[in-house]
Amino acid sequence: MLKYDVVIIGKGPAGLSAALYTTRANLKxxxxxxxxxxxxxxxxxxxxxxxxxxxxxxxxxxETEKLVLSFxxxxxDDEVVxxxxxxxxxxxxxxxxxxGTAVLIATGQPRKKLKIKNLEKFEGNGVSYCTTCDGYFYxxxxxGVLGNKDYAVHEAMELEAYTGNITIFTNxxxxxxxxxYQNELSRFRINRKIITELNGADFLERIAFDDGTSEEIDxxxxxxxxxxSVDFARKLxxxxxxxxxxxxxxxxxxxxxxxxxxxxxxxxxxxxxxxGSGALAGRKMIEYVRELNKERQTNVIK
Length: 302
What we know:
The protein is of the alpha/beta class. 27% of the residues lie in helices and 24% in strands. β1, α1 (13-24) and β2 form a beta-alpha-beta unit.
């Protein structure tokens, strides 16, 4: 497992801003993410400090990436499917596992809600977003995972600790999984139909599809697209409010060593606030890693 002082999840403005500080402080820094920052969709930005004329979000991100790379950061084009906390943090992707002393979640705003009738009605009563939190309640029952990418397969594998009756529902989408997870698909039943409605009395009992058919189910876990900031937070027991991660004044969550910055932490979703919160997180991660290293050295001497 590759080891780093700092692992940053997300290569949008908050993540890259944090990396500018951690790399210049000579901390071994890894940035993991896809080119899916909402800033890349901004063709013209006319209210950002330091520019007298409009500039594209794509330009700002590309130029900042060049800068952090010149300072020694490593950037990996990959998707994080899980974060685990032991002494340090283990960050898992389809292609590798990384250890980080400090981790920053900077994955932007959580994905949009799925348009499935009664989805919200059964949240907490058959619909779940966290296999770690709720998997135990479905021991030996029939469960589903809704999603079509690596994250969905990873969550299905997590559920195998509780039940062997697992179906991956792609909701009409084609499976888009890496080779690592393609090799695991045979362990699960795959349903490619479009889901129109969830039905039941007090608890989820049935999934209805657009072809008029339905299927009985005890529970379904939502793992659509990629894992969001809130998905990571739930699994780690990190405090959230709505679709935002709660942090202190230093951008640290209630889990020591785990920081969050950018759109996943603020209501005012602007480039300037993302860059600012990333910079603060970067500075505080430097202090955290250095203090932890000092403690370790003191214990070794003793």
